[in-house]
Amino acid sequence: MTADRVAGLDDRSLILALQEVTEELTAEAPPEALPMDRDEAQAMLAELLRAGGYDVTELPRLDESGQYAAARRVLTELAENPTTQEAAAPVLAEPPADTRLGAEIAVPALVAVAGVVTWLQTKVDVRIKHKDGKTEFEFRVGKEAASAAVLKELAAAVMRLWNGPPQQ
Prior knowledge:
Elements: H1 2-7, H2 11-26, H3 38-51, H4 64-80, H5 85-93, H6 108-123, E1 125-131, E2 134-141, E3 144-145, H7 148-163
């Protein structure tokens, strides 16, 4: 089972695997379809969350264990999602080995944000527009702007990926 494979990865292997899957999934994307940096990725996700009815300016900050948990949820989703599982399956079958002795790996929250953005881009077309020093995001399904219901559903999914399931 995919969730078991992801759960069995140590933290370093988890981050390396999520990086590899994200890179594979975005390799063919045109540069203008991808956020330029972490701030733009955070802004994109915050805009989606606001469009989905959440009153936020950014994703909630997570402590270190929360960052790894979010990365596990994102990798599990990418591995189980029919649109992305083909890219994730070989990575999970042979998780990347960390051959960099003593080298630091990327911050788990950054890798998780990149994974969430990658997942989002499999659900909707995200158009990023830069004009007069401002960045605007447009979420589209096909040729139409995404409906409020679709944005609300996607925003709820992003929050579940980031924070985990709601507490009962």
